[in-house]
């Protein structure tokens, strides 16, 4: 079982067949806002209500980078990631940051 720092908001999720660490850092948040073309939490919250597959990749990649999983984040478009696992991992990371 992967060691995560709950105080920091880190979560573990199984993606591409292995346990990965995700974290909503300020850098990840900025990357998400830029990648989705939104500014501010209100616009981000609205956009998160209906993510496209591309949007999900943007968000997941940023959360993976925040958790130190840059290699998977950089190759995410070609990784064997189940969309449901990806959505659950994103939800889990945002819940941990609340």
Automatic annotation (TrEMBL):
Top-level lineage group: Bacteria
Cited InterPro entries: Phage_TAC_11
Originating organism: Brevundimonas naejangsanensis
Family matches, as Pfam families: Phage_TAC_11
Name under which the protein is recorded: Gene transfer agent family protein
